[in-house]
Design brief:
Helices cover 85% and strands 0% of the residues. It has helices at residues 4-37, 45-72.
């Protein structure tokens, strides 16, 4: 049976990976839009924030999730 903390780490990992993927896709789409329309002034800082939260969250939650899986097996 999985420990309660494993579910917390798994949830944190899922949220982090979701933010990472969504931020990456949003940045890619913004880049395509900027390139195709020759836009000079675009506010994409919130997209970088979402992507950064995903990166940091994944870097923190992935080792934690692996540690709880190793301890439970």
């Amino acid at each position: 049976m999985l420990a309660k903390t494993t579910y917390y780490w798994l949830t944190a990992l899922a949220v982090s990976l979701t933010a990472l993927i969504c931020g990456g896709v949003a940045l890619f789409n913004a880049g395509v839009m900027i390139d195709e329309n020759n836009v000079q002034d675009v506010m994409i800082a919130p997209l970088w924030v979402i992507f950064g939260i995903g990166v940091l969250g994944t870097l923190v939650s992935l080792p934690g999730w692996f540690a709880t899986r190793r301890n439970n097996s």
